[in-house]
Amino acid sequence: MVIDRRVGSRASGAPAGPAGAVTLRGLLSALDTAVVRVVGAPAGEDVTIASVTLVDGSDLLAEAGAHAPVPDLYLHAGVTDADAVRWLDEVAQRSPEHRPAAVMSKCAGVSGVLQSAARQAGVALLEVHPKARWDHVLPLVKHVLDHSRRHQATLEEPDLLAMDTDLFGLAQMAAQNAGGLVSIEDTQSHVLAYSASNESADELRTLSILGREGPRDYLRALEQWGVFDRLRESDEVIDVPAHGALGTERRLVVGIRQPSDESSAVPRMLGSIWLQQCGAEPFSSDAPDVLRGASAIAARFIWRSLNAPSAEGLLIQRLFGARGGGVDVPSLVGALNLPVTGPAAVVGFALTGAGAPAPADRLSGVGRMIRLHASSFRHDSVATVIGDRAYVLLPGYKSASTVSAWARQLVDDFEAKRSVVLRAAVAIQVTDLGQVAAARAEVDRVLDGTAATFPEGRVTTLDESRTAVLLGEILDLVGGHPELYDPRLDALFAYDLKHASCLRESAEAYLAEHGDVRRAAAALQVHPNTMRYRIRRVEDIVGLDLGAPSDRLLLELQLCLHRRRKLTDPPA
What's the first-to-final CA gap in the chain, in angstroms? Predict the structure, then answer.
């Protein structure tokens, strides 16, 4: 499952290879010994890494005998020793330009057969900590690669921000000046960057870097001490004492928040910076000032990352028709390593909530997980978040029904495992990459047109939901012209309000049952004569003859518009 495989890179301060590439040594120094270590590097640690792919055993099997350019770094997620050895034996038979530079595996340190196969293939073998999460390791590697591209760009076009474009560099600088170990986290306590560790790193820091949750007892202690509440409510640097029973060292922590402006009375929380004490070594005297300064700089980084995608991200968004569109398809195919021929599918995902837009960091997190799932389904997929929706391009799919089944499984998994409720729309038979933007527009039509039918049609296509989509668009067109609103309905709503009656509800039931009084009465559990009386009162109040098809159509359209306004208008 290939992800962002053409991102050029160079780690901060690390020796680089070609433009947009990082050396293996530079990549390792930018990560952490808690995450990965070298088992063997037959070609040395100066080989260059410019692209990364996350694969499982089926991906390796499908790649056998391939002669296309391959990514430089493979992350083996769930790959058995036997599959990895078989693949490396096949890699050893390839010409050098068709071999990867390195492989990351959780089995690398214990499998002598795997080590021998990697050595014979001339491929560096890196051991990943067994508790590390691949959905955490992959973004870390991607960050290092993407940072190198940005660094190369600033060499060509330097600007005033060229010195502060890396959270990892900021963490290292803060650690050196504050006298401790620094980690920078988002609002969900996921580590975004960290300084180099040493033997004084406690278990909490190690688990955080590996992408794991810290000890539950310690998190409860932080809640009891009011640390999280103070982070949300103030800019103070908080002193968190050591916890001997849990084996955690003393820490200082400060919140990261978006600077307030005239449109925002309360600054938005973006994350936090944690400084762990190194054994008996005290913090520097100005550590609180260092953390406050680092917080202000980190706020710019995080805010920028939430609002400004990378160069590759811009390419992908333009492919989907955002940010001006207008991509050069042949160049994009080369940059993203996408197949030129074969049908493609576009899948759009929308968060379902109470109507309020989801926070950008939550959307970003959902988008990252969707991208990971998409890459496990199709190794050449690409994904992005645009506005309040996530989009996935699945090139060269084998079966339209398989694409829909995958989307349904993903939607079900997100709700069951993460309590995230999604809707999805699928556009299939995208004949070439130049049609991706049009496919995204189709997906948006479906997501917009089926919002009112939730929870029905959680995953659907335009063909399956055309009636709901077209009716929704017709109502939008009519609703956009105030002169097409029938003021006679106001009298009906006013009557119900004044007399605590339910004439509108009765009219809706009557229309839904195509004028069948008995069925409409049964739906509302009233006597048919009561229903007949109510319909006569509706006709008298609004001045319509519900025996006439045109009057029934008009009333139904107007009632639909009323319901639509109640769904979309903010509460008073």
Answer: 47
